[in-house]
Amino acid sequence: MENPKKNIRLVSNKNSRVILPNIMTLVGVCIGLTSIKFAFDGRFELSVIAVLIAAIIDGLDGRIARLIKATSKVGKELDSLTDVISFGVAPAFIMYFWALDNIGRFGWLISLIYVVCVALRLARFNVSTGGEPSWRDNFFEGIPSPAGGVLVLMPLIYSFSEVQFITINKNIIVPSLFIIISALLISKIPTYSLKRIVVPRSTSIFLLFGIILFFGLLLIYTFNTIIISGIIYLLMIPASSIHYLFLKKQNKEKDDNVDHHEDIL
Asked: Treating both helix axes as pointing N-terminal to C-terminal, what angle do 73-84 and 13-40 enclose, rounded to 10 degrees?
């Protein structure tokens, strides 16, 4: 009796779902590296757009992985390595080519400090996630690396926008912003995390409309929209801190029964 034909599979059913989010992550790192090439050629507008696309992909790959239940330890580590390149190395090089090289060795030192802070922030994130679900999951410690990568580009983005109401001194503003963002990356200031946001079914249509409106504005008024979004994000940091302290007070009794292990970072 002949054996039934077996389908030859290059990837097992169990692992095939993991490929899609990992491919998206790798595409993101390629786009992040390409932004450096654009900056090296002096095409700074394209370099900013490349970092922005990398940030959008970074926000989607994790959500897709959770949606199709394709999360993995490899994907988590790959995502962090990608973030170091796309939102650490790439913005540092872009801003160095645009402004920081004008201040010599100090500009390169600031670039190095920023990249190191991104790496430290991601290392702390990796060791602090994966525990029991908690209300704290709605917050990050410090600003996330994609937000930091876009924020350090704000002076460059501002130079392309149509809302230029003041003249900025690149030699002062850019180094100062790098130092501030580097400090925010490794700080423990609570900032909102949108990864676990729950939207009621009755308001989901308004969320979809808001997302479509935002991306529409991003396509038409790209740099203006990024500037306004960056300002709104910075204003949300004090609000998120106040909200965090309020929730911490409400959940104090529950937290007293949990043993929190603090890492060195």
From this structure: 0
